[in-house]
Design brief:
The chain is α/β, with parallel strands linked by helices. The chain contains 13 helices and 18 strands. Bound molecules: 6-O-phosphono-beta-D-glucopyranose. The site of 6-O-phosphono-beta-D-glucopyranose has 5 residues, from loops.
Amino acid sequence: MTAPSVAKPVTHGGIHRPEEHVIVLFGATGDLAKRKLLPGLFHLAAAGLLPRRYRIIGTSPASFAISTEEFRDHARQAAEDFCITKPAHEADCWAEFAPRLSFAPADPGDYGALTDEVARAEKEIGGTVRRLFHLAVPPAAFTPVVGMLGASGLATDRSRVIIEKPFGTDLKSAIELDQAVHAVFGESQIYRIDHFLGKESVDNILAFRFANGLFEPVWNRSHIAYVQIDVPETLSIEGRADFYDKTGAYRDMIVTHLFQVLGFVAMEPPTALSAQQLRGEKTKVFDAMRPIDVRHVVRGQYEGYRREPGVASDSQTETMIALRAEVDNWRWKGVPFYLRSGKSLGAGRQVITLGFHEPPMRMFKTHRKDIPDGRRNEIIIDFADPGSITTKFLAKEPGAEMTLGSEQMLFTYANSFAAANALEGYERLILDAMLGDQALFTSSDGILRLWEISEPLLTNPPAVEAYAPGSWGPDSVNALIEPHHWHLPQSGLAPGGVGGR
Ligand code: BG6
């Protein structure tokens, strides 16, 4: 099926609202639905951004089935725990939302209850209704679920499908998955989600770079010495052993989220912020990336990981990874992109750092000893919600001598814009999928290219090195980026202090 799904947003009171929808949530009792999707849908409902008429059907294999009443209770608790809008405080909103939730089990060979429930929901809504299938299921279930959507007739021309990450586990499996999905849906109906691309501060990279004459002219190898994309987490695997031990930090975070962020940092200016142009420019960056060189990769595993319930006692899965990536094009040739992410690390942060070449410093006889070489000019984009941007520079300290100190200019979302309109990554992307806008979703060719450059690492991974929980990974993580230094951990964060080690 290759029917195009044209975006037709409906405006209600000046706000773009999607057309009438039935949303079918696969994996409705799982972790992602609990933490992000059910709270996100409630927040969209409370913000008036869901369609005027909609139904949400939770589904899971019969062995995990719950009743509609239990599903509503589950969703309420999820929203209470993880949504900024609390059902207890917004009783009217909840009272409107809850009756639109229902549950129906479905297995690949037994989907009658789900097709009946979808038909019932569409009849209730009336008129022409769109279907949005969100596959919040383990990667191994993508192909069977998509097959079921085809076999059951649930996938129609007016349907769209959101597929979670990781899209495949290597190049071969990603190609197979792509073929399986394309056997049922046309490309314009497929929304491969990467929730980092829905984060306000990640989208702001495009505004920061391309809406200002100030930064883009220096955004290249002539001025930038290194780029870091650093996403340490304090969380451990939080009971997700079954998923995590098969996945590891590289597939869970780098090949999905961090490479996508790299795409935004490194892309050429697109001619428009539409799906075709934005995805095209990102794919060109991925095309220019060199295959990952395993000599520039450190894989770590936190001490105690192998004792986590569900983890193999000899597991070689990395719980943190740091690597150097290279974008071999005119803009970035020779600029290392250092990427790091992992579990049970020293802090939870989401930070991009661009370090600038140093100017000649001969004329300045003295500067404070605590400013390390190469750390004086940096742009630091903190993209954890609500996000901030800091530019670090040297300034003259007051006094009779020309002594330099490190200073910074700081923009914070929290102090600059009202947070009321902010949407979480998932919320923004589910809304975009309902509106038919694929700009912030990943394209098939882009993902396949990322798996292609990953092949050397996936086939020949360096041994995992142990690190203490709460640390910053094994020592070789620092050696990896010499002569540079990781921006994190920082010291002296207070305004006027000296950043970096
Ligand atoms: C998910 C990963 O995609 O992203 C998790 O599977 C990770 O392991 C999470 O913790 C981080 O996202 P956020 O937006 O919650 O920081």
